[in-house]
Structure formats: structure tokens, C-alpha cells
Amino acid sequence: MQKEYRFYGRRQGRKLSPNKKTAIDNLLPKYEISNNFLAQNSNIDPVDFFDFTPKEIWLEIGFGGGEHLAKQALNNPDIGVIGCEPFINGISRLLTEIEDKNIKNIRIWSEDARIIMNKIKANTISRCFLLHPDPWPKKKHHKRRFIQEETLDMFANLMIKGSELRIATDDSNLADWMLDKIWHHKNFKWLAKKANDWKIRPKDWPETRYGQKQLAGKPVYLRFKKI
């Protein structure tokens, strides 16, 4: 039986334009991971989501408009990239990018990321991304933040030993929260050795539109290794 999670984020913003609605209606079924399939299966090898045999599987949680996800997929065509995002406006934007650039190695999960994380076979994900998650700034809402002991356990279970968890935020309070949680988790090691290691975005880390805006401050780029 599929575990139920309470979802707090938005599922839709502005009304979709005709082109974006067409993308959802016609393209999403081609790239979406079926909810029915996940509900009926567990311990799923994520390679099975693709119509080719990927060299590795990468997972992005909350891809927003999909800029980072699309660029990573284009730059790494032999990697299977799974993107999780319930926000339909962001999904429609990514679908347009996929179609325009003929991207073949993306699959989309349009529900809560924890559902699919709970279904994927252990030790199968080679890289994970969590970029600019909602900071939920009010103290009473901190329990809604994505990085919690439970989700770190999920990441640790899914990720191959030596693989990398990448996190970005422009919210200093959230950065401190996430760093503290991950620092004290037995399965992760922070890779920073000097300030530039978290202040400067690595060359193979495409920026998102949100990151470029720097709405709350200058982003930090945190990298952790699964140990």
C-alpha cells in the first residue's frame, strides 16, 4: 500500500496558456512516471522508467521551471534524469523545453517526491539535487521543510556509496538548518574545504532562474557525499 504524505506546496499558479495546456495534455503522458505503476509496485529499479539503459540515474527534487534539469539532461545524454515537481506550471515549462530540444533522457514525477523516493530500489541513484526548496520561514512551519531526518534517511537509502547530494538556497536561515541536519547525519559528509567551495557555483552546476534572481540573498551551493 502506498504511504500517504501531506503536501503543503502549490500545485498550480496562473492559468496555463493554450500552448502550455497542450503540452500537459499531449506531452506529459510520454514522460510521466505512472502513479498507478508506483502504487502497485515497490523496490523499483529506476532504470525501468526509461526506454534505454542509462549509465546512471540522477534525481532532482522540486525542479521548478526545469532549467537545471533540462541542462543536466542535455549535457549528460547517457544519464537518466528523474525530476519531481507537483507544480503544474513548472512541469508545462519543462515539457516545452523537452520537446523543443528533443531531450530523451528525462522522466517526470508530478506528485510528492517522498512517494517515489519510498518506492525506488536502494543504492540505485548516483546524484541527487535539491535546489532552492521552500524555506518555510515561520518557526511553526519548519516541520514542512524538505530536509528532515526522514528524508535524509530516504536519500541515504537510495544513493550509491560515494554519490553526491547537491543543495542550493539563497535563504541563510534555511542553509544553516539544512547544513546542521545533514552534518549530523551519519551517512553524509560535507565536501567543502574552503569558503569558495560553497560560495561559488561549480561549472557543471547550471543555475536556475530563481537562483539568478537572488531574492533572499546570495545563493550557497552545498555538496555532500554519501558515505
Give a written overview of the molecule.
The model has no long low-confidence stretch (mean pLDDT 90). The protein has a single domain, classed as Rossmann fold. The protein contains 10 helices and 7 strands. With 227 residues, the protein is of the alpha/beta class. 34% of the residues lie in helices and 19% in strands. It has helices at 18-26, 28-31, 35-40, 67-75, 88-101, 113-117, 149-158, 172-183, 196-199, 209-213; strands at residues 56-61, 79-84, 106-109, 125-131, 159-169, 188-190, 220-226. It is globular and about 45 Å long. Strand 4, helix 7 and strand 5 form a beta-alpha-beta unit. The protein has a 7-stranded mixed beta sheet, sandwiched between helices. The longest helix has 14 residues, at 88-101.
Task: Briefly say what this structure is.
By secondary structure, the chain is α/β, with parallel strands linked by helices. It has ten helices and seven strands.
Distance between the termini: 31 Å
Largest sheet: 7 strands, mixed
Kindly identify the CATH topology: Rossmann fold
The top level CATH class name? Alpha Beta
Number of domains: 1
CATH superfamily annotation: Vaccinia Virus protein VP39
Secondary structure elements and pairings:
Elements: H1 18-26, H2 28-31, H3 35-40, E1 56-61, H4 67-75, E2 79-84, H5 88-101, E3 106-109, H6 113-117, E4 125-131, H7 149-158, E5 159-169, H8 172-183, E6 188-190, H9 196-199, H10 209-213, E7 220-226
Helix pairs in contact: 1-5, 4-5
